[in-house]
Amino acid sequence: MWSFLSSFLIALLFTPLVIRFYRRNNWLDDPEKNSHVKKTHSKAVPRGGGIVIFIATFLAATLILDFDKYLLAIFLGATLLTIVGLIDDVFDINPYLRLISGLVASLIVVGAGIGIAYISNPFGPGVIHLDQPQFSFNFLGEVHSIWILSSLFAVFFIMWNMNIINWAKGVDGQLPGFVSVSCIFIAILANRFADAPTQFNVANLALIVAGAFAGLLVWNFYPQKIMPGYGAGSLAGYFLSVLAILSGAKVATMLMVLAIPTADGIFTIVRRLIAGKSPFWGDRGHLHHKLMDYYGWGRRRIAIFYIATSAALGFLSLYLDTTGKIITILATSLIVFSFLVYSKIKAKQNE
After folding, report:
1. What global pTM score does this model have?
2. With contact defined as beta carbons under 8 Å apart, do 183 and 165 qualify?
């Protein structure tokens, strides 16, 4: 528990300093000065959550974990995302620049050797290996190999989660709540299946990330004093993806715990493409928007819904095999899709 408590206390105590610093510099997300249809808050609030998460996870990891090349690569990528998040907090940079930074961060960790060598076979016993084909080359007298499928899948997996999780931060307490819960279940599974391909304790790192987001949650829950911003949103998907890989390619578990935001993300991309819009430009069509606009849900209720569903799905993931997890993911996605389609039809009828 010290892993969780250390990052929790750092985030809890450091967040007011970030809030004060942002307010002093007038780095505020003010919907009256910079309106956007996707925004749900009505008062000027600092973002800055990315700095909180990075400081809390880095300091706690320095105190508890042994740094090796994998952990160095993880925090090198996290540093890049935090810097880009800080710039976005102040200047609202182009989403394609954020996408590029996410790609670079993903390549850093995959280049360090963090990849998905196999996934469980959903159609039968055993696993599906991703270590072939390989590209080998000689560098400084040593032979290095790149596992092409493994690397491509890992990069896609990390970038996908960075984006869809980042979209699920529209209301107070939403993102840090379900991310903290998700990390706790990854920690439980990492302890159960001790096959991590690195030398440091993955469960402790997962608890460190969980504690950092829990500390931010205290200040982000309704009424929020600080927002996660792109920094915390991208770090959430980044850390969760890397942790899922390190804990033994728990891809299905990760997707199951994040089934609600994942289904919302898939529906959002399809909906925007059908409408001829870029999938990376924000709008007011996410699940949390529908719950708020058409069903009268408050911010606290939406946040608790995301936290509770992640906890329930995480609990189920402890007992289901890969096939059961995939069925649960598909069933959850179907429910979310049906709800979003119904909400869209209802909205058109009320126009």
Report:
1. 0.92
2. no
